[in-house]
Design goal:
The complex is a heterodimer of chains A (348) and B (410). In chain A, β7 and β8 form a beta hairpin. Chain A is 32% helix and 13% strand. Chain A has twelve helices and eight strands. Chain A has one domain: Rossmann fold (3-Layer(aba) Sandwich). Chain A has 348 residues and is of the alpha/beta class. The termini of chain A are far apart. Helices cover 39% and strands 21% of the residues of chain B. Chain B has 410 residues and is α/β, with parallel strands linked by helices. In chain B, β15, α12 and β16 form a beta-alpha-beta unit. In chain B, α1 packs across α2. Chain B has two domains: 257 residues, Rossmann fold (3-Layer(aba) Sandwich); 138 residues, Rossmann fold (3-Layer(aba) Sandwich), CATH 3.40.50. The chains are: A alpha/beta (348), B alpha/beta (410). Chains A and B meet through β1, β2, α3 and α5 of A and α3, α5, β10 and α9 of B.
Amino acid sequence: MAIDTALPQIKGVKDVPYEELFVSGHRTCQGCESALVMRHMVKASGPRTIVLGSTGCMYVANTTYYTTPWVVPWMHTQLGASGSAALGTAAGLKVLMRKGKLKNEKINVIAFCGDGGGADMGLGAISATLTHKEYDCLVLLYDNESYANTDIQLSSMTPYGAVTTFSPSGEKKRLMHTRWKKNVPGMLAAGHPESRYIAAGCAAYAVDLMNKIRRALELGGPTFVHTLDPCPKGWDYHPQYSQELGHLAVECGIWPLYEVVDGVCNLTGPTRQIAEGRKKRKPVIEYLRRQGRFAHFVDEDVEHFQAEVDKMWTDWLIPGVIPFTVPAKDQALLKIDRKPLHEQTKSA
Amino acid sequence: MVVDVKTRETSEVETEQLATGCEAIAEAIRLADVDVMAAYPIRPYDGVMQAAAKLIANGKMDVEYIVADGEHSQFEIVKHACAVGSRVFVGSSGVGWFYAFEAIAVTAGLRLPVVAICGNRALDDPGAFGTEHNDSLAVRDLGWLLPWAETAQEALDLALMAWRVGEDRRVSLPVAIGLDGAFLTHSQHIVKIPTQAAVQRFLPKFDLGDRLLHPDNPITIAPQVDQDWLMEIRRQNDHAMRQALGVIREAHADFKTIFGRGGDSPFLDEFMTEDAEVVVIGQGTLSLPMKVAIRRLRKEGHKVGLVRLKWFRPFPTEEVVRSLGRFKAIGVVDRDYSFGSPFYGGVLYNEIRSALYSQASRPAIVGFIAGLGGREIEQPMATEIFEKTEAAARTGLPAGDVCHWIGVRE
């Protein structure tokens, strides 16, 4: 029987494949959005997929000997090796098929990593992989904004001011962590022009996320998808609110949803609606006050957080994506209209 | 550069070329039909990657040649290519080897038969390019097979052996061939290059069987096992290492039949030992200055010889004991150090002592640390090594320190 490996875009929830390829057997926390990302990821890619999982929650909590939840072939890789794992697997399959040592067919290769493995330790290897355009592989970074597996330690993806076990709030220092979160998908899109697909998604927008996975795999070459995953344990909130926090992160403009396809940036979901003026961006306090990790914030902390998020929308060359622009005197050099999307003249 | 001095069919099995150790390994990569290799620059091992790149550019072989962003990625790339069934090659030297260390450790744990060379080089700091064996030896406890080559010919031969032994289902362990930096990686020798047909007779196709990572075989590799299963899995590694001794013997016998080379023993290369009373043992290119010294000292009436250890892992305990047990004294020359170890000796010194401990009749064992950082072992140093070992044979060992640093400014 021929296996249909085409991955058409999913039109709505009813069009999502019924087949589960990430099943019971894992030990992730209640309300774990990263586990949901795993489920959506393989649902979107289908059974002809090899998954490489770098160390992190989605290894340790997810893959216990004798109770694997993975229906597709799965292999562990090291914390900083998701890029290399994707590359090596894709290269191996390609050469074996070329030499006739393996049946020639489409096999999706997906390597995932957490924010520690992807944005900290493994960033170099992911960057290298995104330059090897002859190999078809996807790196997925599931970002729960801390080293959540090892005890909620600070990563370069932890938001400004958040409490982690490496950045507690104390009597002398209210805020231990004062670095702004790295802009990983924007950085990778700007720095790897030959990668055909780089996207930011969120499991709270499941169909959007599954379509991003599919588009990445369909376009081929090395691609990258970054998801923001609310984490009840690390962010300190009741597990029932995970989806709601995902929605709020997007609606407050903190986590813009977008995809960069062959160098063209499309804002997606509510992010597009906000940019087009069809939806009002919510104040960040609505997001911050729902989480214990920001419980120590005073007004000035919230104001700083809001001001930084506002800058993403008002000052950045592409809202939430490219964090710089050119001086006013050089605005004419820009090839795009700097005005917000809803103020741009609707020509053509 | 590989220079064709003559392309003479001596038999169906070989032509001859002038090649460095690195170039000889590149020929082995071609002959073994390697599928994926990953390169990253560090001297001296990377001569092999340069030589292989030329072979690929000139259409001599079809390999996915990936230039990685660091040694960690290099070793991770080939590890994962191997898991989907590719025959792979990789390598490094000195601190580069250490940069890859995490990947090196898990490759053995995963039982993936990655074949590597370690172009032995001193570890920084301070910087030094020359040979020291501490890079290779750092992985000695992890489950890598560790042979050492003496000549470019042996480098090529050991590489073919490495895929054969490492990929054997009874072993399924990675192999790191030690090549002394500069002395072997970059010095030219006449090398007999086997024909592809002969290599195919020696080296079967790589088959991971039911451990292949593929959608038709949807296994989960290396899940979290914790204390429930880790000891059993470690025990399997131990078993594989034990099996490797027999598999090396088999492969060596086949190699001799097909190519007519390899010496009497797969593990030891003995030189003028028949009537020797005192021998020196060491690894790699140490044998060259030692052979010169032995010829000279024998003319002066000294009954001296050399035993060269070809495989450090698995350690051929039985062969070592049988061979060394018959001499009065043994000098172990380490091109490595093991600071703070018993008697402040090198790594090989303490391994040899350990192997001989349970023997009823034990020769005196003197340790020497020599030639670090690529320092040449000159004839006066070789003479001193033999003199000190002969003295131990005559009078027994002095109390206290029995390890000597040779050729060092105190």
